[in-house]
Every structure is written in C-alpha cells, then in structure tokens.
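Bench notes, afternoon.
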Amino acid sequence: MSILSVKNLSKSFALDGETIKAVDDVTFSVNQGEIFGLIGLSGAGKSTLVRCLNLLTKPDEGEVWFEGLNLVNQAEEMLREKRREMGIIFQHFNLFMRKTVRENVAYPLRIAGKQKFEIDARVDELLDYIGLSAHARSYPAELSGGQKQRVAIARALALNPRLLLSDEATSALDPVNTELVVTMLKRVVEDLGIAVVLITHQMEVAKVLCDRVAVMEQGRIVEENTVEALFLQPREAASRKLVRGFDENIPLEHFASLATGPVYRLGFRTDSVMRPLVSDISRRFDIGVNILAGNINALVSGDVGYLIVSFDDESEGVVAAIDSLKGQGVEMIRLTNGESQGILHHTKGGLVS
C-alpha cells in the first residue's frame, strides 16, 4: 500500500534570466515499510524534489499524495500537521550547535507542545535507541560526524513519523561513519516499519539499503526498478554510470575496442552469481571466452554480479552459448563502439536484438 504518491511534479527556478526546470514531470510512489531511493549525480534535481515532498518548496505543477491527502492543495495549518508525520535528515546534520544532544532531540517535541514528562521519556528512549545516552549533555561540536547524524535521526524520529526523508544523509561522512548510519537506517525500518525516501548520489549506499530505486537526470526520472534489476540490466546511460564497478573510469565502448569479436555485458542474479556458467559454456560449446572486467555487488536482495566478456566470433556455437546463458537467467547487453547495441531478449524462437 502506497503511503506517498507523487504525480507529474514539476518545479522551475529563474536563474540569470533563464528558467531552470529542477524537477520535470516526476511520478513515483513509495510503499509502507519500503526504502525508496532517488539516485543521481549532483544537479539532477534530487534535493529540490525532496523539499517538494513536504511542501517546504511549493511545486509549480503536480500532486503529492500523503496518506490519502494531496498536500499541494492544503492550507498551511494542515501542512504543518502532516510535516510532523514526515521526519527529515539533512546532509550537514542541521543540529543546533548551542544546544546539547538532549535539547536537539527534544526540540520537535517541544515545538509540538508536548508535556515535559512526555519529552523526557521520549528523549531518553531515543538516545538509548541510537546508543548515545552517555552523550546527552554533549554539544554537536564534541561529536563525530556519524554521531551527529545519529542525533539527527533521533530528532527526525521524535514525533513517530510515518515517512522519513533522508537527503544525502551519508554524503558528508567517512566510510566508517557511513556504515554506522546505514546500519541505523536499516534498523529504523526493520523496527518501526516506516517508509524512507533516500536521496543520494552514492550507489554503494543505495545498493545496501533500497528496495527500489529511481534514477534522476536533469530533473527527470529516467529509470525506475528494483535494485537487483537495475544492476543486472541498466537500460539508461545515467543508470549505467551509477552502477559501474571498479572499471568506472573506463568507458563501456572501450571494452568493445579491445576485441575483434562481439563483446557483451553479462548480468548474474543471486542464484547464479557463484556458478561457473562462463567456463561451462566454454567447455560445452567449444568456444573461447575472454573476460575483460567484472564485479560482484551485495544488495538488499542478495549478491548480483556482472562480467564484460568477448567471444572469438559469432559462430553457431557462440549463438548457442548465448542462448544457454539467457536460458539460465543471465541478462545480456551487447556492447559496441556506440556503448550498447541493445538488450537481447530470450524468446521461444531464440534471441532477438
């Protein structure tokens, strides 16, 4: 069941006499208990979009349905009430530097008019939950980046939100603190069952957190899928840039120039990633297979991997081997000097491009 549904959302800004469309006709939905990722490079429109979700920035067009209510049409009083059901975590923490950890977490409760005994009990509960009870009287300047973000998460959870908006929550952190915050966000979803919209440019974060992802480019969603499907068969150039592994600085078309025969990107699902499928087809069909690159990624749904391989030619044996791989669930994209020729689909009649 969708807790958030965004329909045809657009937002433009005037800049130096020009109109910049930061969010361009965006549509997506988020289910209860789901982590939905909005992924893209800097300038893709992600942060503008997240501010439109809670109407801190009013969109020019479109609808934002939250728990059956279109927020775009609501008066400010109703918006304030609904924003209390949407926690938000910022990239740079946005903590009050002159307030203690305890006072920062208590802030939304105090603004909401809660009684002191309610505030004290809730803050104690949250500080224990994030493992920072011992730092209750500390100030943000005395904390590490990861600790600051955990305080920000506790503050975002103070009013028991139904939806959590995470705007680049790990971008300002080192790898160790990133892992701590990722673990905390996982725990929040598992324990509380709330939905999360995760805004990030870090695919390494999205792949271990998200159930589904939407790739943004120039204000538009260019591709939406499960994380597994996106890694196995990224259809758009923007998606392929984000899911690349250790060879990310090598253009895909470069691989096609390394061999005289056909070059393919093979995507392996969880059930096949550890099976010797390439050596198997080499033996069975008596063909040469040259491995040019590869990687394995640990996702929420399990491990997936890819290989860039070239074949000696396009003989009947190679065609039969490709058909065999497709029959075993391997996703295949043929690479050319134009990056990719297309996705091969397995049909009853064989392979078509």
